[in-house]
Design goal:
heterotrimer, A mainly alpha (about 120), B mainly alpha (about 80), C mainly alpha (about 250), A: about 120 residues, mainly alpha, Helix Hairpins, about 75% helix, elongated, B: about 80 residues, about 0% strand, flat, MnhB (chain C), membrane (chain C)
């Protein structure tokens, strides 16, 4: 059974679904951001396990290491970029969250939408 | 043996993700999320990606957690019902 | 109701993803299709071509240097956006909630942080400079520097941390990653190659390995400094509080 052998992939799918559930259902924005981070790490995890080789060694050629046994270096290089971009996205989103709280005094998405609707109504009158 | 260790680590990952998502207290959620990042770094080390494990341990468990903490202290600690 | 619909949707998506994953090749197969074409070449030739035994450093700085320069731009843009949203301090020292806390940090924690911070910075310097031989490199080292300053800031407060790392020290270094990347790229053109060519064709063959090595180290240092300063500035901008009063303690 190939899927059972690829249990890393199953873990990545479950983590992705947990993250997506948080982003959709939870109403608190910081919770949503935690969910977004879980989704990101799930995708990174999937990529890294794609590049793994049985009994592989890290792709560092020191001490006459055999290149044919090394794990795939491309996913690792790409995900290194991805992690740094993920932390920049998180920082930007959190500063927006701080600004939202300063403006509306709540982090609940439903409250935020209601406040916005009321403001639009007041502006219309 | 190695397979059992991998499975245990992935189960721990999923458990910590669920706990982080379910926690009512945002502070607890963020701390559990940093544990999640740390386990992820260990899993990546087991997948022979030492560069990434180093980055995840520093960025995921360190920088991201502190950024979340700062945002929580500047806003609201409890999740509203 | 909304919860049930989203649960249904997500479980459907999960089943779909599991089907896709089930038809993927066996994980850990040395013959799998992800290991064709360019991968064996990278693994075989990276050491001679990029002069870095760590293949990942060779890929992110040399083979795919454009990619990394774009990434450096992304983190700089993130910093610019954070500063545009939250604002930057005018001048001088700044403070935050940590400084106004009525409960001072425990002396044990303070002593430990004061003891550990230099060692963490030393480790990060090792990580940056040894990036092409051992696991590590610019981003990793930069993140570790950032983490050490973050520990310091959360314990000793922003008032103290902004005295150690003043604004006039941070501002010129924030852009250093992209500037150094750009300079090295232009030097590649001057040396007779394309943008971001490390092995200049215009110089003698026996000089090329050392030039490649030094350019790699310079780029690593630039990325490390730039990344660390960007992370520190983002943290300071998020922690800073507006009132222009000094903390009591």
């Amino acid at each position: 059974m190939r899927l059972l052998h690829n249990y890393h992939y199953i873990g990545a799918v479950i983590l992705f679904c947990i993250g997506l559930y948080t982003v959709i259902v939870r109403r608190n924005i910081i919770k949503k951001l935690i969910g977004l981070n879980i989704m990101e790490t799930a995708v990174f995890f999937f990529y890294i396990s794609l590049g793994y080789v049985d009994n592989g060694i890290a792709p560092i050629r020191v001490g006459g290491a055999d290149p044919s046994k090394m794990v795939n270096p491309i996913p690792q290089a790409l995900i290194l970029t991805g992690i740094v971009v993920a932390v920049s996205v998180t920082a930007l989103a959190l500063s927006l969250v701080i600004l939202l709280y300063r403006q509306f005094g709540t982090l609940d998405v439903d409250h935020l939408m209601r406040d916005e609707a009321e403001e639009a109504k007041e502006a219309g009158e | 043996m190695a397979t059992a260790l991998n499975v245990v680590m992935i189960v721990l990952l999923i458990l910590s993700a669920i706990l982080a998502v379910r926690a009512k207290d945002l502070l607890a959620a963020v701390i559990i999320f940093s544990v999640y990042s740390l386990i992820m770094a260990l899993v990546w080390q087991r997948l022979q990606a030492p560069d990434l494990a180093l980055t995840e341990a520093a960025v995921g468990a360190g920088v991201t957690t502190v950024l979340f903490l700062v945002a929580i202290f500047k806003t609201h600690r409890e999740e509203e019902r | 109701m909304k919860k049930i619909i989203s649960l249904l949707f997500i479980s459907a998506l999960g089943v779909l993803l599991l089907f896709v994953v089930a038809s993927m090749p066996r994980m850990g197969d040395p013959e799998s299709p992800t290991r064709e074409h360019v991968i064996p070449r990278y693994l075989e030739n990276a050491e001679e071509e990029t002069n870095s035994p760590n293949v990942i450093t060779g890929i992110i700085l040399n083979y795919r240097g454009y990619d990394t320069s774009g990434e450096v731009t992304v983190i700089f843009c993130a910093l610019a956006c954070v500063l545009a949203i939250l604002g930057r301090e005018k001048r001088g020292r700044i403070h935050s909630y940590v400084d106004r806390s009525p409960v001072p940090a425990s002396p044990v924690v303070k002593t430990m942080v004061r003891f550990l911070a230099p060692f963490i910075i030393l480790f990060s310097v090792y990580t940056i400079l040894h990036g092409e031989i051992s696991p590590g490199g610019g981003f990793q080292g930069g993140a570790i520097v950032g983490a050490s300053i973050i520990i310091f800031t959360t314990i000793f407060g922003l008032w103290e941390a902004s005295r150690r790392i003043p604004q006039k020290f941070r501002v010129p270094l924030e852009g250093s990653a992209f500037i150094i990347f750009f300079i090295v790229g232009i030097l590649g053109i001057v040396g007779g190659g394309n943008f971001l060519t490390y092995a200049w064709p215009n110089i003698a063959n026996n000089l090329q390995p050392s030039v490649v090595l030094w350019l790699t180290i310079i780029v690593e240092i630039g990325i490390g400094l730039g990344g660390a300063m960007v992370l520190i500035s983002i943290l300071f901008a998020m922690m800073r509080e507006e009132e222009a009063i000094a903390p009591t303690a």
